[in-house]
């Protein structure tokens, strides 16, 4: 009798992991450290699966993860792909993503939190529970805060139902560190920490073009230059949220383009005119005049 | 006496893996699931106590099984049934109902005969 063998390459093809990783590469611009980590995780899980099939190991590995990074760096998108990946590898049964925040887990009065948290957990069974801004669950200044109750239930389920669901916690890096320091139970139960870097200006410009392409729009050449200027300026202003800021900027640019076409068009418009974002559509943004009034320094008021 | 109500009641009791498979079937057809329990299995007792709210948006049977475990812990000596509801007609219609927990000692039904006007008789049953 020959030794049982495993063909990892074949496994990689048939399980569909390859498709997920290719989609990850295609759909997400930049984020190379994240992609690297996910590829490593996928390799680990693939090997682990093979080991289990050969009877070398029995227990389910800990799959809970934490995603840290600034807003708009693609944490939710990656979590959704991670759910697909884990599903194809057979670590979760259904592969759906339930995205929640503190409001969905923590109740408003005594005895309200446990049923609420359990309700969410029931929905997430067989899939991935994505807790955005997880550190809001823990409020150290209020010892009677109901968040603690949700944390206890979560910890229990993360330990006992490892076969049934995977928990991904996400948020700003520094606040997540504080959260884990205050709740050591989480740190020990989370195996994979993935850090999401900010996008560079060039990557954001590429993201902007991809977003427009998806909606069948495109930049005029001068508009692309204007967008590059916009990104550089916007980054320095408050509430910058990477790709999300870009999406919002493009939504407003489309609004201005529609307005411009409406007021300027004399005759019939062709498809090219309808789908081109021109320079003035971008340049009209308040970002070029120093941002929103409320965010500007109050120096002017002080002078009066 | 073994109570035979709903689906599968003439079969041996379903084990948890079989219940999970049935619930997966229910969820696969986009039906809502609920748990109910009672200590009065009389066939005329249609409305059993609800164990929590019906579950409308589950994706996996594990959520139901968690509730079932809790219900069994709280009422080990009660009848517990799983029900499935279909809403395609605009209201929730029971599509499936099966018993998943029975007391160790099931009650017997006792028939009561009562004399009535003329020489007629009235019959009633009571679970003892």
TrEMBL record, chain A:
<dbReference type="GO" id="GO:0005524">
    <property type="term" value="F:ATP binding"/>
</dbReference>
<dbReference type="InterPro" id="IPR041627">
    <property type="entry name" value="AAA_lid_6"/>
</dbReference>
<dbReference type="InterPro" id="IPR050773">
    <property type="entry name" value="CbxX/CfxQ_RuBisCO_ESX"/>
</dbReference>
<dbReference type="InterPro" id="IPR000470">
    <property type="entry name" value="CbxX/CfqX_mono"/>
</dbReference>
<dbReference type="InterPro" id="IPR003959">
    <property type="entry name" value="ATPase_AAA_core"/>
</dbReference>
<keyword id="KW-0067">ATP-binding</keyword>
<comment type="similarity">
    <text>Belongs to the CbxX/CfxQ family.</text>
</comment>
<protein>
    <submittedName>
        <fullName>CbbX protein</fullName>
    </submittedName>
</protein>
<dbReference type="InterPro" id="IPR027417">
    <property type="entry name" value="P-loop_NTPase"/>
</dbReference>
<dbReference type="InterPro" id="IPR003593">
    <property type="entry name" value="AAA+_ATPase"/>
</dbReference>
<dbReference type="GO" id="GO:0016887">
    <property type="term" value="F:ATP hydrolysis activity"/>
</dbReference>
<feature type="domain" description="AAA+ ATPase">
    <location>
        <begin position="61"/>
        <end position="200"/>
    </location>
</feature>
<dbReference type="InterPro" id="IPR000641">
    <property type="entry name" value="CbxX/CfxQ"/>
</dbReference>
<dbReference type="Pfam" id="PF17866">
    <property type="entry name" value="AAA_lid_6"/>
</dbReference>
<dbReference type="Pfam" id="PF00004">
    <property type="entry name" value="AAA"/>
</dbReference>
<keyword id="KW-0547">Nucleotide-binding</keyword>
UniProtKB/TrEMBL annotation, chain B:
<comment type="similarity">
    <text>Belongs to the RuBisCO small chain family.</text>
</comment>
<dbReference type="InterPro" id="IPR036385">
    <property type="entry name" value="RuBisCO_ssu_sf"/>
</dbReference>
<feature type="domain" description="Ribulose bisphosphate carboxylase small subunit">
    <location>
        <begin position="4"/>
        <end position="103"/>
    </location>
</feature>
<dbReference type="GO" id="GO:0019253">
    <property type="term" value="P:reductive pentose-phosphate cycle"/>
</dbReference>
<dbReference type="Pfam" id="PF00101">
    <property type="entry name" value="RuBisCO_small"/>
</dbReference>
<protein>
    <recommendedName>
        <fullName>Ribulose bisphosphate carboxylase small subunit</fullName>
    </recommendedName>
</protein>
<dbReference type="InterPro" id="IPR024681">
    <property type="entry name" value="RuBisCO_ssu"/>
</dbReference>
<dbReference type="GO" id="GO:0016984">
    <property type="term" value="F:ribulose-bisphosphate carboxylase activity"/>
</dbReference>
<keyword id="KW-0113">Calvin cycle</keyword>
<comment type="subunit">
    <text>Heterohexadecamer of 8 large and 8 small subunits.</text>
</comment>
<dbReference type="InterPro" id="IPR000894">
    <property type="entry name" value="RuBisCO_ssu_dom"/>
</dbReference>
<comment type="function">
    <text>RuBisCO catalyzes two reactions: the carboxylation of D-ribulose 1,5-bisphosphate, the primary event in carbon dioxide fixation, as well as the oxidative fragmentation of the pentose substrate. Both reactions occur simultaneously and in competition at the same active site. Although the small subunit is not catalytic it is essential for maximal activity.</text>
</comment>
<keyword id="KW-0120">Carbon dioxide fixation</keyword>
């Amino acid at each position: 009798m020959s030794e049982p063998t495993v063909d990892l390459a074949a496994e990689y093809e048939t399980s569909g992991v390859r498709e997920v990783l290719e989609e990850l590469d295609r759909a997400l611009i930049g984020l190379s450290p994240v992609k690297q980590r996910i590829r490593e995780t996928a390799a680990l899980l693939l090997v682990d699966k093979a080991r289990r099939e050969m009877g070398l190991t029995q227990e389910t590995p800990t799959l809970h993860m934490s995603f840290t990074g600034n807003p708009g760096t693609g944490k939710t998108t990656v979590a959704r792909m991670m759910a697909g990946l884990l599903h194809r590898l057979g670590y979760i049964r259904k592969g759906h993503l339930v995205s929640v925040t503190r409001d969905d887990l923590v109740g408003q009065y005594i005895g309200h939190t446990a049923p609420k948290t359990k309700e969410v957990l029931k929905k997430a069974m067989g899939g991935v529970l994505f807790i955005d801004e997880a550190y809001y669950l823990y409020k150290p200044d209020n010892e009677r805060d109901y968040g603690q109750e949700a944390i206890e239930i979560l910890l229990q389920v993360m330990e006992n139902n490892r076969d049934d669901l995977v928990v991904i916690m996400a948020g700003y890096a520094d606040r997540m560190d504080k959260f884990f320091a205050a709740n050591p139970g989480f740190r020990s139960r989370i195996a994979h920490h993935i850090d999401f870097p900010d996008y560079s200006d060039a990557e954001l410009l590429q993201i902007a073009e991809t977003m427009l392409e998806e909606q069948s729009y495109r930049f005029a050449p001068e508009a692309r230059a204007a967008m590059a200027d916009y990104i550089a300026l916007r980054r320095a202003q408050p509430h910058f949220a990477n790709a999300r800021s870009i999406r919002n900027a493009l939504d407003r640019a489309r609004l201005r383009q529609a307005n411009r076409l409406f007021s300027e068009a004399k005759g019939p418009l062709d498809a090219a005119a309808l789908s081109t974002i021109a320079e003035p559509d971008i340049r009209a943004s308040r970002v070029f005049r120093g941002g929103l009034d409320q965010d500007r320094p109050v120096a002017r008021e002080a002078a009066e | 006496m073994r109570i035979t109500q709903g689906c599968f009641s003439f079969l041996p009791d379903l084990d948890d893996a079989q219940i999970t498979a049935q619930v997966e079937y229910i969820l696969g057809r986009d039906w809502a699931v609920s748990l109910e329990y009672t200590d009065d299995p009389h066939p005329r007792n249609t409305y059993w106590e609800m164990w929590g709210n019906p579950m409308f948006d589950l994706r996996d049977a594990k959520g139901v099984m968690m509730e079932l475990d809790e219900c069994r812990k709280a009422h080990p000596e009660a009848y517990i049934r799983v029900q499935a509801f279909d809403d395609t007609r605009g209201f929730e219609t029971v599509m499936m109902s099966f018993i998943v927990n029975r007391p160790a000692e099931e009650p017997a039904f006792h028939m009561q005969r009562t004399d009535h006007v003329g020489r007629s008789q009235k019959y009633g049953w009571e679970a003892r």
